[in-house]
Amino acid sequence: MDSSPSPDIHIPEQWSEAAESIVYSSRPPIILICGAKNCGKTTFSRYLLNVLLHKYPKVAYLDTDVGQPEFTPPAFLSLTIVHKVTPDLTVPCMKTPERCLFFGDVSSKRDPSTYLSYVFALYDYYQKEYCISEKGKNPFKIELPLIVNTPGWVKGVGYDVLVDMLKYISPTHVVKISISRESKNLPSGEFWLDGEHDETINLIEINSAHQDLLNRSMIVRKDARLLREFRIMAYFRQCICRDSSISTIKELAHALASHCPYEVPIASIKIQHLHCEVPSSEIFFTLNASIVGLAVDSEGLENLPWCLGLGIVRGIDMVKGVLYVITPVPHSSLEKVNLLLHGYIQIPSCLLQVQGCISPYMSANTLTTN
User: Fold this and answer.
1) Are 356 and 345 in contact (CB under 8 A)?
2) Phi and psi, residue 91, nearest 5°
3) In this structure, what DSSP letter does residue 203 have?
4) Is residue 305 a contact partner of residue 298, using CB atoms and an 8 Å limit?
5) What is the pLDDT of residues 66-115, one digit of tens each?
6) pTM above threshold 0.85
């Protein structure tokens, strides 16, 4: 089964066997993939996704890695329903999630409890929509396999968070990827079960894909910050017409600077700062020239702000009472937005440093008060 069309990716036999054992399960599997940073979780999850799509028409993908998400910009937790095989395992691609939540940071360190509540909410949504066959009410509901991608922070509080995720989700399969440096790996066996054995869980332990003759991991270390900036730029590139010829960062900066923003009435929205408190007198100064989550404030039992995407606040006019926002989110969806979430995600520095490009969102002094 050719699920790795990328010429630069070699899928070892151990990985192929692991994927095959999962895909031929008697029922749609729920697979959680875990391991230390740079062990190959992303590559394996993409490969497994392709293998599953040869058997199932759709696969659900729950991404809990806010630092290096698969289908969204950084700082999101999301549930995406995937219909098509990934053509190149080396290239990440943007997809519109079915549900997502904006955590506002690239690690769960600042607020592990909120992070876990977001993970649980997305998993509950998956169960409600895709795992329950309710005869009569909705006979067309079907079970979908689910892949859960996890962060590489597996020590200290990160380990505790992973254990809580495993206990809540109770996956049918856990794929644990190890690297050559033992001190960085997760404990052996079913470490989240406190010594108890669960026969309903299939634990699959595999090694990192790239190792040399001395058994050292050969996976290339990624520049996480640079990758996040490229993901953000790729996201906001969607604001510009696809026919536009943009091949450099400078061209993208100029295109975004000249892009017509939406006018958002300040009176129509709420503003929430994540992981910090901001004096009311400073709220608009912190919003200006920043990236925000565009969310729908929920007053229901869940009380979670489902997010529809990101926007750049490129200017604020206090006299007119409006914010100027650039976003690729469709206008039909923007009409639902009534909450702006401000976290720690910033405009990529490479966009701000383009010479000869002067735009409202590249200046820290664009607040209009008179």
Assistant:
1) no
2) -115, 120
3) E
4) yes
5) 999 999 999 999 999 999 998 777 777 889 999 999 999 999 999 999 99
6) yes
